[in-house]
Design brief:
Helix content is 5%, strand content 29%. The chain contains three helices and 16 strands. The chain has helices spanning 177-182, 188-194, 292-295; strands at residues 22-30, 34-35, 57-58, 65-74, 88-97, 101-102, 122-124, 139-141, 159-163, 170-173, 196-199, 202-205, 220-221, 225-237, 243-251, 308-316. The protein has a six-stranded antiparallel β-sheet with strand order 1-4-5-14-15-16, with no helix packed on it. Strands 7-12-11-8-9-10 form a six-stranded antiparallel β-sheet. Strands 2-3 form a two-stranded antiparallel sheet. The chain is elongated.
């Protein structure tokens, strides 16, 4: 009688069907998007239309680093009344994303004389100081400057303010910030006309008449994206064919505020004149002023909204 030998690596039957109770899945992506214009609907014109190649920089969608972690755990159960001590499961999703760029432009002054109303200014310092948030970037004007013959000697004292995009309250800042502007500005006349922005040790001032600013495209960044979602599942088994799952899902578990990027398709303010990335609108410049879901017109649906709790029941037969 012939015998049949089982290959060493062939599957064998086992009486144990125990599943792992904890599962984790992590993902990391590194990338660098580069282009000379990312958007269509909200895209601005190049600063210098005769040299569009000078717009080449990090794209509007440049997310340099993104990390996600999903985890689920089946809590060990114990037979008890109405299955209350068994069938429990917890889940979580952690998302961390580095900051995206936002472009700044001036639609109000046309210092270059090009007529495109997309001038950029001169920037001195670290672009990281001009990180967007819930308030505008501090702005200094020179209300006492003469209407003609402005020089750095007679430009007068600065009036510096910052406005909250949440409450609308305007805070008065030290007039000494204006000295940082006069120390680096190329022209007293355009400085008196357009004012300047100061944050930390960095300064942004208008260019000299008939010239373009030294700022490159998309040098500023928002505050990035950090979010934790959490859920609890309770499974019930009535018979082999009938099961039910009750779930509690919590989005933005820690109710952490995320402020929108001042520029882009996800923000209704976008690249339009008077938007929050327009240097000609100093009261809101650099202010995301809303969470991404509200800015995009999708409250509680898009990312960035306040904590949201959802209940659900699924019956399977």
């Amino acid at each position: 009688m012939a015998s049949v030998r089982t290959p060493h690596n062939s599957p064998t039957c086992s009486l144990s069907t125990r599943r792992p109770t904890a599962r984790f899945l992590a993902g990391y992506t590194y990338g660098h998007g580069l282009d000379n214009g990312s958007l269509n609907r909200f895209g601005t014109l190049p600063q210098d239309s005769t040299h569009p190649e000078l717009e080449y920089a990090s794209s509007d969608f440049d997310v340099r680093n993104r990390f996600t972690l999903t985890a689920s755990y089946d809590i060990p159960g114990k037979k008890g009344f109405a299955q209350l001590l068994e069938g429990w499961k917890i889940n979580s999703i952690v998302s961390v994303q580095s900051a995206q760029p936002w472009i700044a432009f001036d639609s109000a002054n046309n210092f270059s004389g090009s007529g495109d109303n997309s001038d950029r200014w001169d920037f001195f310092g670290n672009p990281g100081d001009f990180k967007s948030g819930s308030s505008s970037i501090p702005f200094c004007s020179f209300p006492n400057a003469p209407s003609k013959g402005v020089t750095f000697a007679n430009i007068g004292a600065a009036s510096c303010t910052e406005q909250s995009g949440i409450s609308g309250l305007v805070s008065t800042l030290s007039s000494s910030l204006g000295a940082q502007c006069t120390a680096v500005a190329r022209d007293a006349g355009t400085l008196a006309s357009g004012g300047c922005f100061v944050d930390g040790n960095s300064v942004m001032t208008p260019p000299a008449p008939g010239t373009f600013g030294t700022m490159a495209r998309n040098i500023f960044r928002d505050t990035g994206f950090k979010n934790v979602d959490f859920s609890v599942f309770k499974n019930f088994t009535f018979k082999e064919r009938y099961t039910a799952t009750f779930r509690v899902e919590i989005f933005n578990l820690f109710n952490h505020p995320i402020i929108s990027n001042p520029y882009g398709a996800s923000n209704g303010y976008g690249g339009a004149s008077g938007g929050t990335n327009d240097m000609g609108t100093s009261s809101t410049f650099g202010c995301g002023c809303a969470t991404p879901d509200v800015a995009a017109g999708n409250p509680l649906v898009g990312s960035g909204g306040s904590r949201d709790i959802q209940l659900g029941l699924k019956f399977t037969f």
